[in-house]
Amino acid sequence: MNASDFYSLSHQFRRALNRDWRLHRIELLCGILYPVVGFYVGHRVGLSQVHSVVVPFLVLAGFMVHMTRRACLPEVRRSSAACYLNLPLDRLMALNAHVVFLGMMTLWLLAWVLVGSLLKLGGAGMTACYRWHPDIAMAPFLTTVLTIRHVYLRRGLAFWRDSVLWYVLLITWLVWRFYGGLAQPSNAANNYWPDRNLSLATEWAIAAIMAAAVVWLVYFTRIQWRHRQIGGIR
Amino acid sequence: MNVIETCGLVRYFGAVRAVAGMDLAVPRGSIFGLLGENGCGKTTAINLMMGALIPNEGIVSVFEEDPLAFSPATRARIGYLADEMALPSWMTLGEAIAVHASFFERWDQEALQKLLKTFDLHANQTFGQLSKGQKRWFLIVLIVAQQPELLILDEPSGGLDVSVRRQFLDLLVDLANEREMTVLIASHILSDVERVVDHVAFVKDGKTVCQSGLEDLKTRVKRLCLPGDTHRHEIEKRFNVLCAREQSGTWLATVSDFKQECLSGLECRVEHLNLEELFLVYNQGGAAQEAAS
Fold this sequence. Notes:
The complex is a heterodimer. By secondary structure, chain A is mainly alpha-helical.
């Protein structure tokens, strides 16, 4: 293999993904605990036969914030011997690899929420119907991307203004989504978490907006990271 | 030919000017000491050389390339070790080697095995099990196995005790000579660096105040000790006096262009300066005299 092949983008990408896997595979396995444990947190005795699965997703969203910081911060701070400055790795490629790796990790953990749902379903003797909310299932992706953005572009007034806006939006959504149910605990209609009982169509619409926001955030984070270096913009 | 060149390099962090017009030329094959006090801009300059920062003004080139546009192939020619660099503590050395080896086309596994043996490091040890000195050694081993042409070390012996520091730097020089590497060492521990570098640049407040071959600098810069200041004007006429002071009836003048033949007719004692004294002369002026006395 000659030098241009060896350092081609596809080879770099494969190597960067392999690096992330080797550096974080323990968290990848330990992380399974979080969504599973999420099934046993915030459990409420409900009246409905439809059980909304909410808490595991929220726990997962929180875990992904932690995981993203662990994966990206050492590289941005250059405190890791395996950061892009020490390796023949394009800086944008290093970010791409993190995005893909963390995206795959989120999918992997979501699969465990599915396993958890199935186990609980079996445990309930097939009497209860478990329901995922598409918008809440998108939350881990959104927090992952927001954290990536925060870690990579955390300096500069424009970033902070932008960042505050995103966090305000996220928190507003969470408060709006759950406030109705929390304010009326006697109206607990499911085993896991009270919510506004939105229609599935509305939830899908919100999920689509969130997915678009995730794509938009990844796209602009890449552009901004390409054009800036730590500490300032040319 | 110079491996690294900077010209009028300036870098601000907000209102703070961390690098304020730094000019450097690191010759190929040299062991170059970038010396200055903490916070004088050494690390920022290295970050500019590595392409981790964009200069506000000036030019920096490494291997005649702009660091911001380094290709992976060029980056593979540079070994970089920062002060606080580490690996996850649970990671085995074998695994760290596998990760790094996959990235480098010219990875020298044979040299790596030899160096691991030299340092009594084993592939099944975890990074967390190593002492601080062993950690630095292991990271250096990883870098040497990359077969870099340029080694950039930012405070490489920081936090190590004296004997380990000495061993570490000796080994580094051996490796550099053996493999014909150019080495840039940024440090504030001058006593360590003096034994290994052949070129130095003193940095003060983000600026290069002196850059020279070490031997040349030691030959040129001397302290003249005269009984009283009767010949003061004569000395000032014949030499470029960097700093001077009177102490216990002796006039001490540090000159930057010493030549033995220029001393004819003058009764004075010539003192040689070590790197620390040279550094103080250029960085603090009068303080050098005090340190020397």
